[in-house]
């Protein structure tokens, strides 16, 4: 107890200096990394999808990215390496992002179906629902939805407060009050035919226009 009339000593909570913006951002980043690591362990331990001895394909990119790339299912190169957007699709996207002036370090890429199953319809609903967790952790400003398969999963998982995204290539749509969506063709299907490449680029370049309009803070 403090003696009557004595001067109170400052408590630790009062004497601590308020956290700076950089410190706050660092704490949020650390939490996002922990949560994504926890999700990775959960995905790796899951046995609901009939993937045999093959490992699930994990996301890559910044844990608090502004741009969230969503593809439907893994390619053979991604299955081999265990990382989303590895191989030709990843190289094509890197070139596209650089051409648009978007730093790849502000991008996070994942798959709607992470397990290498023989047919995407064999994936478990619990597997597809991991997308909800990723969106909640990363908190992106825009989701780039690649192809009808990825779009179907995004609309299926019922993101809180979300509107259905329509398959309108190159049009930025509202997904939630804090996040937009851009539908583009499937990058994997656009690599071997010139017309498909052009169609993908026409839709994808809308991301550059959107990115230029972001406030610098």
Describe the overall structure.
This protein is of the alpha/beta class and 217 residues long. Strands 1-3-2-4-6-5 form a six-stranded mixed β-sheet, with helices on both faces. Helix 2 packs antiparallel against helix 6. The chain is globular and about 45 Å long. It has a single domain, classed as Uracil-DNA glycosylase-like domain (Uracil-DNA Glycosylase, subunit E, 3-Layer(aba) Sandwich), CATH 3.40.470.10. It starts with 11 loop residues before the first helix and ends in a 5-residue tail after the last helix.
Keywords for this entry:
217 residues, alpha/beta, Uracil-DNA Glycosylase, subunit E, 9 helices, 6 strands
Overview in brief:
The protein is of the alpha/beta class and 217 residues long.
Q: How are the SSEs placed, and which strands pair?
A:
Blueprint: H1 12-15, H2 21-45, E1 60-61, E2 67-71, H3 76-81, H4 88-99, E3 107-111, H5 125-128, H6 130-138, E4 142-146, H7 147-156, E5 172-176, E6 179-184, H8 194-204, H9 206-212
Parallel strand pairs: 2-3, 2-4, 4-6
Antiparallel strand pairs: 1-3, 5-6
Helix pairs in contact: 2-6
Element string (H = helix, E = strand): HHEEHHEHHEHEEHH
CATH superfamily: Uracil-DNA glycosylase-like domain
Give the biggest beta sheet.
6 strands, mixed
The outline comes out as: globular
Structural class: alpha/beta
Strand order of the main beta sheet, please?
Answer: 1-3-2-4-6-5
User: What would the average pLDDT be, to the nearest integer?
Assistant: 90
**How many domain units?**
1
- CATH C-level class: Alpha Beta
Radius of gyration: 21 Å
How many strand segments?
6
Q: Fill in the CATH topology.
A: Uracil-DNA Glycosylase, subunit E
β-strand percent reads: 5-15%
Low-confidence stretches: 1-15
Helix content: 40-55%
Distance between the termini: 47 Å
Number of helices: 9
CATH-scheme architecture: 3-Layer(aba) Sandwich
